[in-house]
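Figure 6 in text form: structure in, sequence out.
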């Protein structure tokens, strides 16, 4: 049974009408599953990873939840995205792999990155392939959708800790450098990494 609640949010600026923030809670069969990272699937449902439960989850707009166990134990899925082929692609930080699943919940394949590279962020790139970050590997990875080939591109900054990755408005891929306190970019068509020097983040106390 879904338990729904709502609350009035404080206006961000003076004079703004307070929105109603709905806060539904849909309990999981497993008490500790650690769900995180949502993506909208091609079927109209929302898909997410369950890092501790080692599953991929699906939830509809009315709160119906389905769970799909991963074949590799302790795969520790981190992030998930919908690929250009309409499949669900996700990072497996445990074995250092990229997983692929059909919207029906059928598991398709795993693609091996470098061992102990800790794949984290993942996105569908403008070139029609899958791109991901490798935190410990200090690399940006690419999976060729048509063949499953994995390519890896080193980040110039040592131990930068690449984490989140997205597609920018100009067709470049942008990623955060958690340890280096910066932002990097890669041009998919040229297969070259270009770290944006002016995007370093200044810390404020």
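Output sequence:
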């Amino acid at each position: 049974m879904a338990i729904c609640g709502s609350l009035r949010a404080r206006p961000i600026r003076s004079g703004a009408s307070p929105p109603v923030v709905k806060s539904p809670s849909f309990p999981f069969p497993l008490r500790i599953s650690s769900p995180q990272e949502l993506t909208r699937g091609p079927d109209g449902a929302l898909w997410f990873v369950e890092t501790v439960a080692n599953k991929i989850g699906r939830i509809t707009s009315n709160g119906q939840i389905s769970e799909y166990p991963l074949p590799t134990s302790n795969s520790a899925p981190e992030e998930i995205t919908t690929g250009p082929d309409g499949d669900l692609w996700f990072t497996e930080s445990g074995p250092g792999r990229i997983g692929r699943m059909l919207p029906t919940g059928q598991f398709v394949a795993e693609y091996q990155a470098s061992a102990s590279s800790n794949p984290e962020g993942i996105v569908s790139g403008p070139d029609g392939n899958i791109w991901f970050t490798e935190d410990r590997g200090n690399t940006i990875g690419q999976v060729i959708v048509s063949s499953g080939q994995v390519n890896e591109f080193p980040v110039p900054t040592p131990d930068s800790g690449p984490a989140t990755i997205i597609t920018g408005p100009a067709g470049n891929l942008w990623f955060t450098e958690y340890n280096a306190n910066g932002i990097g970019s890669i041009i998919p068509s040229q297969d070259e990494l270009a770290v944006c020097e002016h995007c370093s983040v200044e810390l404020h106390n």
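Caption detail: The first strand starts at residue 6 and ends at 8.
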